[in-house]
Q: What sequence folds into this?
């Protein structure tokens, strides 16, 4: 199926086709664009196409069946490298928020060896945003003098977030968010547990299919309802809400990265819920809003003032940034629920 599962980036598929057919492939590309928009998927397909042993080397379509294609897909191809976070330091079992120098050295050393299967080498480096000076420096020589027939693909969210030394050595490919109709079409190809959510997911995901599919989990919505109902109670049980929030986040798995991702998704829905409450407060219930949704946010709108909701929203946005900084998830969640409880219960005239 090759490129047929890559949606919304047809322009770049065509561009790479032209480049490959003219034999003008660069040695290093920097893919930038919002999370979940399909950059990694694109890089994987490109790697497969470049290493495929059945296609014509001037073509950009992987057969998907040869040994090479299967090995790339499985992540076990000897000429295909894929690194990124989370990275667990075996000496202290700690998850690190940087791409460590040891890992980069290992990548550079193996990348410099002769291609094992004779079609060149491809490396995909996720999380280029977290490439700090020292590991980046060890990587520069490989970027400057790449082994023949090798391609490095770095993936980050923004061009501004990259080190200038890296930026100047890579050809930049910008991945834009998908249009709403494209995103809607992708969602329609998936069996959503709750199809009535599709239109809301399209709005919430801001052009990112990865984010839309993550948000489609009905458990997230159930939990978000519990949280919003909790904040609508006359006396908010912050201890109980924080406890269930932590349990919900821990249910995502024992890896901190999975827990952080789930906490971030809940936050996104929480921000949306409180924004809806603000809308109801200022303009009354939207005619198009489902009755259950209005019933959920109305108690919040009734018990608060706009300035309180704005503070709630600000606190949620700050918490999103904390999650990115890898503070312990449980502590972040507990502090958030406590702060929101205080804001919502604060009498008029206090701040
Ligand atoms: Zn193949």
A:
């Amino acid at each position: 199926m090759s490129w047929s599962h890559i949606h919304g980036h047809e322009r770049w598929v065509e561009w790479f086709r032209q480049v490959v057919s003219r034999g003008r492939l660069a040695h290093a590309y920097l893919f930038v664009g919002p999370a979940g928009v399909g950059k990694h998927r694109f890089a994987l397909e490109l790697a497969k196409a470049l290493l495929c042993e059945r296609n014509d080397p001037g073509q950009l379509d992987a057969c998907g069946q040869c040994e090479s294609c299967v090995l790339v897909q499985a992540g076990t191809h000897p000429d295909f490298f894929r690194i990124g976070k989370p990275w667990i330091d075996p000496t202290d079992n700690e998850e690190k928020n940087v791409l460590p120098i040891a890992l980069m050295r290992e990548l550079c050393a193996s990348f410099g060896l002769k291609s094992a299967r004779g079609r060149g080498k491809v490396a995909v480096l996720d999380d280029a945003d977290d490439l700090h000076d020292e590991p980046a420096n060890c990587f520069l020589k490989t970027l400057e003098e790449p082994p023949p027939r090798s391609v490095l693909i770095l993936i980050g969210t923004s061009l501004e977030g990259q080190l200038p030394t890296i930026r100047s050595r890579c050809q930049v490919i910008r991945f834009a968010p998908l249009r709403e109709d494209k995103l809607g079409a992708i969602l329609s190809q998936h069996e959503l547990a709750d199809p009535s959510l599709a239109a809301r997911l399209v709005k919430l995901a801001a052009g990112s299919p990865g984010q839309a599919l993550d948000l489609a989990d009905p458990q997230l919505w159930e939990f978000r309802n519990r949280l919003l109902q909790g904040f609508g109670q006359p006396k908010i049980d912050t201890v109980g809400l924080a406890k269930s929030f932590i349990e919900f986040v821990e249910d995502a798995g024992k890896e901190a990265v999975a827990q952080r991702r789930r906490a971030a998704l809940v936050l996104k829905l929480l921000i949306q819920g409180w924004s809806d409450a603000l809308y109801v407060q200022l303009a009354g219930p939207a005619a198009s809003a489902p009755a259950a949704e209005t019933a959920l946010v109305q108690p919040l709108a009734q018990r608060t003032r706009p300035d309180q909701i704005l503070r709630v929203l600000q606190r949620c946005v700050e918490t999103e940034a904390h999650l990115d900084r890898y503070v312990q998830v449980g502590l972040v969640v507990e502090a958030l629920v406590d702060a929101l409880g205080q804001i919502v219960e604060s009498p008029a005239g206090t701040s």
